[in-house]
Amino acid sequence: MKQENFNANHKGKCGIRTLLAILFCTFSWLVFCGCSDIGGYSNKSLFPEDVSSVCLEMFDNRSFRRGVEYDLSDALSKRIEAATPYKIISSKDRADTVMSGQIMSINESVLSVERETGRALEKEVHLSAVVNWKNLKTGQLLIDNKTVTSQATYSAYQDQDFRYASALAANKLARSIVEMMEKEW
Question: Do residues 140 and 83 both lie within one domain?
Answer without folding.
Answer: yes
